[in-house]
Amino acid sequence: MGDVRDVVVIGGGAAGLSGALLLARARLRVTVVDAGTPRNAPAAHMHGFLSRDGMPPGELVAAGRDEVAAYGGELVDDAVTEVLPGFEVRLASGRVLTAPRLLVTTGMRDELPGVPGVAERWGRDVLQCPYCHGYEVRDQALGVLATSPAAVHQALLVRQWSAGTSFFEHTYELTDAERAQLAAWDIRIVPGEVKELVVEDAVRAVRTADDEVPVDAVFVFPRFVPGLLGGLGLATDERGFAVADGNGATSVPGVWAAGNVVNSRAQVLMAAGAGAAAAMSIHADLVQDLTRRAVQNAS
């Protein structure tokens, strides 16, 4: 049957730990299972988190783990290999956990364009979120590497931090309206496919077949791939992200989801809030179920 818990949290980032903290404080038996592959691991600091601005993301996770453990929550460094109805959560180590409720906070991963230099400098001076990193590269020479229509929107945002913003068309064909938008903000449009990022100790330039443009940082809008577990059968949207209501409840009774596995735009602060909201909903649902059973037994 496995180790019996009230809630198993799959994923130990901000959303999962925030939810686990609330559930542990509600005196529930909670286990957090985390595979140790956070999306923001390459980033030296996180920003926009009130009272924690500039903190290394690893420090936030470490503090969160300590807080969950202090209230009796269990933290397991392992990977979930399978979830069976009921719910039976099987881990790579062979351990089996059973629980009537799950909180899925498995996040997402970034699928990067295969331009040499992008993956090597990802999270350092190859960036995605201007709200996370724009201030740190303000007034510098910035590039936006286009791979989808989202890059145009990204460039318009990045321009707010630096007048020296260049848009590299790469494999994306701009419409006339998009060209007009970029031109209205004096964003330089660089034609041609990008061959590589010139990297020394940091990114120094973007090289195309016909040009080499000096830059201090490059923004890229990757393809977001949700880290959903197979076999759960959750309803997803057209991009593959879990569909959940405002409290994190999914299409599968007993399963809640929060953070980037639901919302690709959720920064750390937003993910933490979503995890807490889901935990409240889970606790209320468990209490309602226990109350119904108690009434039945008393009649």
TrEMBL record:
Domain FAD/NAD(P)-binding: 6-273
Source organism (scientific name): Lentzea tibetensis
Listed GO MF terms: thioredoxin-disulfide reductase (NADPH) activity
Catalytic activity of the protein: [thioredoxin]-dithiol + NADP(+) = [thioredoxin]-disulfide + NADPH + H(+)
Keyword Flavoprotein part of the UniProt annotation: yes
Keywords attached to this entry: Flavoprotein, Oxidoreductase
Protein name as annotated: NAD(P)/FAD-dependent oxidoreductase
InterPro entries in UniProt: FAD/NAD-bd_sf (IPR036188), FAD/NAD-binding_dom (IPR023753), Ferredoxin-NADP_redctase_2 (IPR050097)
PANTHER family: THIOREDOXIN REDUCTASE 1-RELATED-RELATED
Domain of life: Bacteria
